[in-house]
Description:
The structure holds 2 protein chains of 2 kinds. Chain A is an all-alpha fold. Chain A has one domain. Chain A is built from 3 helices and no strands. In chain A, helix 1 (2-26) runs antiparallel to helix 2 (31-56) and helix 2 (31-56) runs antiparallel to helix 3 (60-85). Chain A is elongated. In chain B, 36% of the residues are buried. Chain B has a two-stranded parallel ribbon. Chain B is rod-shaped and about 100 Å long. In chain B, helix 1 (2-30) packs antiparallel against helix 2 (38-59), helix 3 runs antiparallel to helix 4 (123-144) and helix 5 (153-163) crosses helix 6. By secondary structure, chain B is mainly α. The interface between A and B is large, with 49 and 46 residues.
Amino acid sequence: xxxxxxxxxxxxxxxxxxxxxxxxILTHKTIAMGLIGSATFxxxxxxxxxxxxxxxxxxxxxxxxxxxxxxxVIGTIAFAMALRRN
Amino acid sequence: xxxxxIEIIRSIFLIVAAVIILITxxxxxxxxxDMKKVIYVRIHMLGMVDIAxxxxxxxxxxxxxxxxxxxxxxxxxxxxxxxxxxxxxxxNYSEIADEKYNEENKxxxxxxNTIISNNSLTEDSELKILNDFNKKGxxxxxxxxxxxxxxxxxxxxxxxxxxxxxxxxxxIDNSNTNINSNSNNNNTNTNNNTNNNSNNKSNINSNNNxxxxxxxxxxxNYNNKNNIDSDGGKP
Lengths: 86, 235
């Protein structure tokens, strides 16, 4: 029981550190870098929400995470297609 | 007993995911921008994080979410790499090409002005210098793949009329003379050269190919095809 909770907290810490790295990618000047950074950031937020929802038993966090994950993917692909046309 | 085993497995999944995410974060922060095509490295890092997050979602007992993202993640990575390859990269290269082209043509324009201002040169030597000069300009154009714009003969006549003396009477008609120039300045220089040779009164009938490539601005690339009827600059 405790080991699962500890591993979840470790994952949360890793995700928070990773979010800073994602912001580092986001701040690059090119559009493609921003795209990668936003994709990674949205992914990290999604997993973070799922983890927090699992720990604190908040059910709608999973719904938010699902929406963010799917819409993030769709947005990234759409923007990449628009970028390619230019 | 079985629940404990499942919890341990889930914990292992979460810890492995956390370790992969931490390694990736370190790599992102450590990676500099001095590398060529660094974006592909970052896309690969994103792929690593994708798989780590799939593992984490499995560990958090979100199998459906993990399955969906496992399918969608490669599409995202491919879309980004494809967009960069086809969209942004050529623009970056064209900017570099424009800078190089401007530098080269700056030097070429300085050389051409000194050549044309020297009236002591003979006609043959002038043509030779112009041909050499045009070769360099053409090579620069081919090297940089810069688009060439067509300019009508009216543009050349207007530019030449602005620079030539009013006493000059030119009979510039159809012949096989091609003037490839990259700027209006070049047009005026070429026409000045022709008029100096003809002592301001010329019937030029020559088949000389005068190709000159001068550009002070890379956006003003013209391909002028003039048909000049002249008598080679002789009165």
